[in-house]
Request: fold
Amino acid sequence: MNTMTPSRLHWPSLTAGLVLMLAGTAYPLVFAHADGRADHGLALLLFWAMSAGFVRGVGFIPRRRALRLLLSGWACLAALAWGALSLAIRTF
Reply:
């Protein structure tokens, strides 16, 4: 018998995931350097934030502790902030 309570949508995380998905689709050069080469570090951070945003945003909470930490709303925020800092440092 499953005693876990169902979780609900987490709108901030879901919104972050959707915005990252739409921004990356509409303007994929955000994942690239000025010369057109892919910025794999930035892409990793933004894809991690997007994935964590979708997972937590739809209300799924993994049972395993490591996945619960990596795909949490806080992980989404941390990866997004780290990616924004990386992008800000790259542009200045």
Observations:
- The two ends are 55 Å apart (CA to CA).
